[in-house]
Amino acid sequence: MLATIHLKQLRFHGRHGVLPEEAVLGQPWILDLDLVVDITQAAASDDLTHTVNYAEVYNLCRDIVTGERFALIEALAHRILSAVLAAHPRVLSATLTIHKPHVPIPGDHAGVALTTTLAR
Predict the structure, then answer these.
(1) Exactly one of 15, 88, 99, 100 is catalytic; which is it?
(2) Residue 24, domain extent
(3) Domains identified in the chain, total number
(4) Any catalytic annotation for residue 100?
(5) pTM for this one?
């Protein structure tokens, strides 16, 4: 039985971006992460070890966003998805949307977002 675990609006402060001031000041980043998992065994056993511990996934995302630096949102997304799949073999695929609400472009907008998927 397949299911999707949704981690919604994970908020972190990171220093990603092309511009030098983005590296110095940093800015908020918001992540939405969907994990496709076979929950058959977990549903039958009611045992956390048979599914994905989403607290661990949260911590992994936090550590990457706050502790590493990327110029491009595409590189940040790939790093997060690769790490999630490497650390959690029960995840069959993961879809990540990264929101950059304070993108340094003129105009009235709510920022930019990138959505990408990585599967085994």
Answers:
(1) 100
(2) 2-119
(3) 1
(4) yes
(5) 0.96
